[in-house]
């Protein structure tokens, strides 16, 4: 039996919480997120997959990411990332599902990580969601039969420049497409202990590597994640010209994620993204606003003209009673009776037939 769980409430004013308040994203990082254009996001909407390989070339698992446009309270991006494989014969995996605004602000994210050991399993789940300009975070850690729960919240004003596991993947795609990582890219994160910490992105430059048997030029982005109680971790990712990942490695790990099959080529020449208004967040938002405005205007007109509903109701009643074979002829004759100049209209119809 699992115990009922230990619950941690909101952080108290301790040295750690004071430290959280002092950690902030750099102005350059915040400006980068604010500079993202809809056209850039369009180029980021695609799926990709890599395989996890050992130093000896043995396949250990898979890694996949998909990005698409969707809508919740507002138009947003849905990112889904998943990895699964085995470490020393023990199955493990991670799944991330994130809803992001156009400037990569997190609306909601669900994170799930597991590893199945011989004598017990370890599972971590963390869910965060915005509500009333507060980020509510619930984390559940299960080790064997013991479960620990943590619940914290932060005002969104304290999370300016927040990057999560989900948004960081999209952020690096954007940097790779720009082929430039500005200086001082310091963002904030929520670490394993749910404390505010920092993560930095830096440029690794351009180099040539072998991708699918072909030597190709790739652009590198490095991400360093800080932690209060654990050592920092560093990831190095290299991207193709179109933003697809070519390789992804955690520094110090014997496992490398590699692209084994080149993505399908698009039309040659200057890259142009076809305009699909349903997937363009700005156009889709304008469409919905216009739709709501028209619905309100139509409803207002119907309220001011109650005879419309009465007229249509009577027509439907007569139609269902008479059950005519030619509905168009029946409708013409029915509404013709409301004309103030029926004889003229009848003569006109006779002459035109």
From TrEMBL:
The keyword Cell membrane applies. Residues 28-254 form the Ciliogenesis-associated TTC17-interacting protein N-terminal domain. Keywords: Cell membrane, Cilium biogenesis/degradation, Cytoplasm, Cytoskeleton, Membrane, Nucleus. It holds the Pfam family CATIP_N. It is found in: Cell membrane; Cytoplasm, Cytoskeleton; Nucleus. Its main location: membrane. SUPFAM superfamilies: Dimerization-anchoring domain of cAMP-dependent PK regulatory subunit. Residues 15-24 have a biased composition (Basic and acidic residues). Belongs to the CATIP family. Plays a role in primary ciliogenesis by modulating actin polymerization. This is Ciliogenesis-associated TTC17-interacting protein.
């Amino acid at each position: 039996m699992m115990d009922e769980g230990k619950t941690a409430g909101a952080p108290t004013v301790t040295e750690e919480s004071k430290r959280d308040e002092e950690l902030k994203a750099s102005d350059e990082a915040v400006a980068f997120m604010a500079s993202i254009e809809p056209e850039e996001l369009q180029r980021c909407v695609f799926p990709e997959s890599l395989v996890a390989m050992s130093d000896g070339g043995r396949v250990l698992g898979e890694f996949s990411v998909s990005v698409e446009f969707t809508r919740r309270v507002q138009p947003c991006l849905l990112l889904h990332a998943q990895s699964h494989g085995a470490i020393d014969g023990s199955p493990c995996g991670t799944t991330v599902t994130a809803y992001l605004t156009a400037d990569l602000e997190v609306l909601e994210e669900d994170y799930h990580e597991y590893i199945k050991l011989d004598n017990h399993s370890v599972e971590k789940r963390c869910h965060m969601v915005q509500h009333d300009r507060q980020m509510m975070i619930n984390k559940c850690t299960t080790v064997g039969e013991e479960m620990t729960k943590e619940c914290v919240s932060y005002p969104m004003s304290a999370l300016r420049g927040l990057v999560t596991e989900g948004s960081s993947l999209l952020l690096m795609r954007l940097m790779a497409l720009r082929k430039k990582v500005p200086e001082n890219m310091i963002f904030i994160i929520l670490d394993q202990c749910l404390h505010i910490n920092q993560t930095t992105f830096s440029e690794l430059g351009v180099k040539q590597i072998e991708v699918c048997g072909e030597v190709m030029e790739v652009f590198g982005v490095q991400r360093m994640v800080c932690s209060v109680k654990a050592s920092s971790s560093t990831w190095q990712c290299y991207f193709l010209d179109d933003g697809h990942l070519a390789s992804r490695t955690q520094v110090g790990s014997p496992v490398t994620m590699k692209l084994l099959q080149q993505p399908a080529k698009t039309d040659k020449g200057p890259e142009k993204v076809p305009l699909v208004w349903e997937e363009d967040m700005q156009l889709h938002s304008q469409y919905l606003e216009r739709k709501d405005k028209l619905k309100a205007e139509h409803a207002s007109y119907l309220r001011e003209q109650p005879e419309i509903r009465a007229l249509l109701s009577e027509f439907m009643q007569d139609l269902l009673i008479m059950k005519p074979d030619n509905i168009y002829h029946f409708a013409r004759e029915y509404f013709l009776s409301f004309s103030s100049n029926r004889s003229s209209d009848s003569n006109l119809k006779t002459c035109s037939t």
